[in-house]
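Entry:
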Amino acid sequence: MRRRLRIPLFVVLYGSVIALTHFYFVLRLVLLPALPTPIAEALIASFAFFGLCLFLRPIAERYWVERVAVALAWPAFVWMGVSFFLLVLLLGSDLALSLLGRAAWAIGGAGSPATALSDRSQALLVGAGALTFSIWGLVLALRSPALRSVELTLAGWPAALDAFRIVQLSDIHIGPLLDRRFAARRVARDNALRPDLIAITGDLVDGSVERLGCEVEPFRGLASRHGTFFVTGNHDYFSRVDPWLERARELGWRVLRNERVTIVAGDAAFDLAGVDDRFARFFGGDHGEDLARALDGRSSERAVVLLAHNPATFEAAAARGIALQLSGHTHGGQIWPFGYVVRLVTPYVAGLYRLGRSVLYVSRGTGFWGPPMRLFKPAEITEITLRATP
């Protein structure tokens, strides 16, 4: 009975949030500014249409034919980003106006010409700002990810492996908006770097193997001296992880599930370990992060590089003496100012962090999730060069 109630409860809650948000937009951007009738009607119809797209998209993806879900994806996700900017700018301008002594919620005086003019000016500025940020964010998200080169000196790193290069891909999110063309471009660019090893730190997909199995096929072409290694992210679990683990192995990747392998180059070696996503335990079966198992029995003479999707693993990993952890998950916040919300959840948002002799690098992600937008948080492919202590 509880399982049967989940879907209708989700539909009611999700629909209520969308309905209330869009009512707020209509009230603040159309009704209070007292816009002329033709413009007001067109805007109300637009809010209704895009709100409906946002509501129907997850339902279509789960229950309807794929063509319907694909058709709804772009308008729904783009509108998700526009809505975010509208909401932030409306609330931000209300706060600014309140601090300046004007009651931003002067609904009682909405009928006066002065108030209508003021509300109209605010609506115009908010709309123009949201449109500007949305276009800017679209351009930044849809262009090729930046190559970020990072050079790290690690304690205990073998001198014979000085200048060992790892290319990290993270949060690729092949799904409704990013397809095999995106994958093929990433493969060509990664291979041109001629890395020693490729690490994919989770959130490969958003969708089932049945829908997206063929879209990841170009990743079979990833080439490096020591191979491609993969750990799961939370979205891989949302997408039914077990078939995806099998698909990853079919692509020729080594999947690390709470285990480690020894990477040998000549007379030198290091351990590469990987753990399940931090929230995998909620999905039952044999899934769940087990750092102790991944590092059990390792030689203290070999440095350890850990692949863990969620950077929250870092403190426990540093306590166990790992040299380097590579993570993703946060997207660096993806869209400003959302990064401030991410920082409330984890202090490790993007870039380099250190605890004692251990180093963490958090990628901003190679793709994007949700809105096809990035603002001040560009996507990246990370080339990490490891250096021995002089």
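The chain has two domains: 2-141, 147-388.
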